[in-house]
Each structure stands twice: as C-alpha cells, then as structure tokens.
Amino acid sequence: MTKRSLGLALLLCGATLPGVAFAEPTPAQEQEVIEGVDARAKLVQEMVDSIFSFAEPGFQEFKTADYVTGILEENGFTIEKGSAGIPSAWTATWSHGSGGPKIALGSDVDGLLGLSQVPGIGEIEPLVKGAPGHGEGHNSGIPAMVAAALSVQQVMKDEGIDGTLMIWPGIAEELLATKAYFVREGMFDGVDASIFAHVSKDFSTAWGQGKGNGMVSVEYTFHGKTAHGAGAPWDGRSALDGVELMDIAWNFRREHLPLTQRSHYVITNGGGQPNIVPGEAAVWYYFRDYTFEGIRTLYETGNTIAEAAAKATGTTVTKRTLGYAAPQWANKPLAEAAYANIQKVGMPQWSAADQAFAKRIQETNGFELEPLATEVGELGMPDDKPPMGGGSDDIGDIMWAVPTITIRYPSNVPNTIGHNVTAAMAMATPIAHKGAVAGAKAVALTVLDLLTTPSLVTEAKDYYQNVQLKAQSYDPVLTDEDMPAIHLNEDLMSRMRPKMEPFYYDPDRYDSYLDQLGIAYPDGEYAGD
Length: 529
What we know:
Elements: H1 3-12, H2 27-39, H3 41-54, H4 62-74, E1 78-81, E2 90-96, E3 102-108, H5 141-159, E4 163-170, H6 179-184, E5 193-200, E6 208-209, E7 214-223, H7 239-253, E8 262-269, E9 280-289, H8 292-313, E10 316-325, E11 329-330, H9 332-345, H10 352-364, H11 395-399, E12 404-410, H12 430-452, H13 454-471, H14 490-500, H15 513-517, E13 519-520, E14 525-526
Parallel strand pairs: 3-4, 3-5, 5-12
Antiparallel strand pairs: 1-2, 2-4, 6-11, 7-9, 7-10, 8-9, 13-14
C-alpha cells in the first residue's frame, strides 16, 4: 500500500493524522485550491488595477505595502514591516500547526520612472506626465501570490495540513537593490522552498543556470575643486573631467571584455553651470555577467579605471554600491513539479476582445503581429552554451539562499518593448487579470505539492546542496558597510505623488480601473479628460 493509499484508508476509517502529509495532494485538494483561486478572481482584478494605479518606483512602494498587507492582515497573516532596514519592505506570515515546511512566495511590486500610461488603449498617453508607471507589469505578481496563498490557506485549514506560508515583495527590483540585503539579514532563514512569480507573455518555468546575468550597481563620485570656468580654470580640478575620462576609458576597454558581459552607465551629476569648474560629479554603472567571478572582475576593473581617471584629472573618487543581483540558478525538482501544474492549469481562455486589444497595441506601435498564446511554454533547461548577455533579476540572490524557482505567467502582450510604455498598456486589462489568475493556480498547486509531499522538499534541497552549490558558491560584491539605497526616488515621489493620487483606483465605486477611466475595452476610447 502506498503512503497516499494508507493515508486515505486511515481517513476513511475515521482515524486522524496529526500534521497530515500524503505522498501527493489528492485530486479533491487540488480542485479545492483551483476553485479557491477562481473565487478570488475579483480580488486579483482589484489588486492588479490598484497597484497599477499606485505606480510606485523602487524604495517608494508605501501605498502598495499598506494596501497589500492590509488584505493579508485581514486574513490572519502576521505582518512585519521594514525588512532588512528597507522601509517599504515587509513580510506576511501564517502558520497552521507546529510542523510542515515553510514556503516563501514572492513577486516584485515596483514601477519604472517616466512610464506613466493610460491602460486599455494602444496609443502612448501618460496618465500623469513624467510620473512612474508599470512598464514591466510588476503590478500583477503579488496579486497572484496573495490569491494563491489565501486559497492554500483555506485548504490547510480544511484538511489539517501543517506548514507556514510567507509572502514577501520584491522591492526596487528595477534597481536590483534589495534581495541581496534580504538574504544578508536572514529573511529566508528557516524557509524550505521559495516560489517567485514574474509577468510574461507566456506561461512557463525553468531549471538550472539562468540565461540572464547577475550584476553590481555602483555610483562613482569624483571630487575636484571649483574655479571660474573662464577667468581662472587652472585654479580648478574638474570632477566632470574625471567622470568623462572614466567613461571614455571604459568604452575603450569594452573591446577586451568577455562577450557575455553587459555594462552601461548614466551621468547622475554633471556639475552645476558651465562657467563653474565642477567640484563634484558622478556616474552610475551597471556591470553584468553570468558568473560571480565575471561580475567581480568587471567591478574591480571599473574601480581601477575610476582611480586612474581620478589621478589623471587631479581629482579623487569614492564609490557606493547601490545594488546587486546574483546570477540565477533555478531548482530542478521544484521546476518540474511547477511545470506539471502549469500544464494542468493551461493558458487562460482569451476572449475575442482580448485578442483584438493585443492586435491593436501591436498595429498601433508598429510591432510584429502575434496573437496571445494559447498553449503553455516549454520547460526551460540549461544547455552547454554560455548566455550572451542580457537582463538581470535579483531573485538570483534568493536562489542561492534556498531552493527557488520562477513561474512566468501570461499577463502581457507579445512583442511589446520591455521597460517601455507599450508594456504598460495591457497591465490593467482583462489580459493582465486572467494571466495573474492562471499564475495563481499554478503557484497554489505547487505550494500544495510541497506541503503534502515531503519527498519533493527533500529532493529540492538535495539538488540545491549537491548540484547547485557544487557548481558555484554565493559570492556577492557587497561589504558589511554597504546599505540599501533607500534614498532613491524619494524626491521624485514627493513631487509626483500628489499628481498621481487623483488617479488611484477606487474599487468601491468602479468595477475596474478601465471603468473608472472611462475606457471601453477593447475599442480603447478614452473618455476621461
């Protein structure tokens, strides 16, 4: 008799099993979880639309935090705010019984600067000119996680399943600025497995070394001496000369850097006015590569070039680490379990209106036409080819602390541009809502697997210890003195928030955010002024 059969037999005979742990979840439990998510589809829509309307950038996600933690607290979760010394960060924890695994559920919540966009139309039109917006879709992941957690929570109560759920937000992910600090401060101590969710146009997951890069974010500040730019420039030492010389030297060095690297910069302070020799200037770099060693080499090269530029210009230079993201490595047993659940859930049932709106975005903005996907993506697997550069996500740091996967759920439109207003156009529409509900179901089923299948937790930890950690060791470019850059975006939001508040979604008065804005879906007629 299997463990599952034995458990069912004991239950049918009236026996009780403290901390019930079947060999796998029963079909009835799976069905209850799926129905629980469906019952919360309206909540998902309201959360997706609300967080879209808040549109808060990194380190300023305070309205989002209060809103989400309020919902979780009403459902019995214990809230702790200010995680790792980051004011807008939080955790929400709920336990049943005294045993069972602890499962972490996370997704990012921050928006992007300058990407305010009216949803539900294909034309570029900001809600508030110059304000942030959800041009990647980070407004949809935490709603999916909340719906998944609340559905699993009910099944744990009904079935007497022991375990702990911990929900947490990715703060300032667009700045790659917090998850390494979460790990350093022990936020994931005691967690047995972690499931992360990220918006996509497809429905998939992967295992093994990721295709993207890790990175370190560093701002170099040069210090010189002011003087009259025309009357006596020889009395000054230009900090801007130091910045420009560093940038020139770095660009010459690119020819001799690995093909896998990506590096880019912006000058954050170029001085005051032309007739004053700049006494201070700063440049902000992202150094990216796919291994810890590669990231560290780029970082040390940047430091050397900065010091050389300072010496050449008679200035001095200081540096500050603003963020870090480890290379990604997803857990194989967890990914295989999650992918089986993605296949069970399947793609959302897109309406003709959904497909028409996706086509409108593509036609209006000159993108290749591609309908919303109707089949799930493939299970991603590693290959022998090194990745040739790409984006980063600091979920990589969590992956080196605990067995972790990312589930990508279908809440956006194919062929839109990432980190662009076109990627915000669908993010408060039925496309985003349906994709988040589908993602919530896959997450909830995978959490149920972990809670009821002890062998899955064991296998995930075995892969983590004996495959992942033998391939690379966690080696972040952070020192004990490095602290989260919580000052970022503070000045911007002090100016923008009053302008944005009139556009916050009111679910008590309007069925959807499109309804509040007067937008007829999918025709895209914007009736507001």
